[in-house]
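On clarity, I found the account of how folds are encoded harder to follow than it need be. An entry of this sort, consisting of the sequence and the corresponding backbone structure tokens, reads as follows:
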Amino acid sequence: MNSVPRRRGRLVSASLAVVTSLALVGCAGEEPSSTDGELTGTITFWHAYGADSKEIETLRNVIIPGFEAKHPGTDVQDVAVPYDQLHQKMITAAAGGDLPDVMRADIIWVPEAAKLGLLERLDTEMPDFAALAAKVFPGTLETNKYQDGYYGLPLDTNTRILMYNADALAAAGVSAPPATFDELRDLADKLTGKDIYAFADNGLSGWNVLPWIWSAGGDITDPTYTKATGYLNSPESVAGVTLLFDLFQASQMPNIVLGGTGGVPTSDGLATGKYATILDGPWMYPIFEASHPDFELQVGQVPAGPGGSVSVVGGEDVVVFRGSRNKALALEFTRYLLSEEAQLEFAKIGQMSVLRDLDVVSVNPTYRPFVEQLRTAKPRPPVPAWPKIDDLLQRRLQAAFRGEMSVQEALDAAAEEIDALLAQG
């Protein structure tokens, strides 16, 4: 969350050269023994569920016991690692040959780990992979793709939707949220001079701008993630970013879009009526409940452009490491994490399910608009260089918003630089 939660976010840089094939020996699990084909033995599962959180309570008291009950003689040892340490721990453990069997990984880590040769390719290792893949939202599945294979499965997900303050809209004489680009522009015109920003966001990273680029009919790369030129700087992509740029130039989008300190956070601005609309995720419900209990949050879908209403996928994936000494058990635990049984238990404590036909709305009605948006949501390009690409994109767009270059010039320059990063594989 750039108002995005930390788990969506920043990748610690690490040199790919430090990890060699020697890292693939020595994962934590024990060699399985079997009795009449039954799974036995131990595996280790790394994750970043917080201490004393509902997530870790559910994992330890419901999910793991439920799996072990189905497979007597098995033992899943979970290891909690703070999110901001987990990526570096993976890289360090890989170099030392001390990886776990299974890990809950940020979606932007999977292509890097696949490129390093750390992960099992699940679409070849799991005979039922196609059946599992068919059950999840397409955008969540694609976060696990590297080149021509899939190296994980989606575990939990989220996306951004439109959130609005009904009183702020009423000040413009509007009763419904903007459903299209044109309606957002119209809202901005009607709010001119009323000391209310039509839209607010707190960054220009892919997480922030991709919903507008995709909804405008643009894209950041070609479908095979090998080229940005002709895509990121296409007329459609430029139009998506220009919508935000025009709002900013018209003083209908606050300065926090350029990052840095100061300014009113999107949550506080929306709740107090300073901002009419924002884009954000399901974690905002408890935030508003705690900080602004009298605010009645209203929601809608991302305003549609020529490309429809398209948002961005967030969340975590589950991966199996190639060095696992109990691969069969690791793969079976992965299957269980995607079962309706496990996904419903996590949904009860705020972790959105990746199963597109699972009735999570009956568990938590606030999931409804996110489930709808996830049907068209797309992943950020699943390439190892994405963190560098994301940083480069944001810096170029910041320069445009500061008036140092046009949006077209910013995206032309970014596309050329991104081409070089994509060429590295």
In short: The chain has two domains: 6-158+315-374, 161-300. DSSP finds 17 helices and twelve strands in the chain. The longest strand covers residues 313-320.
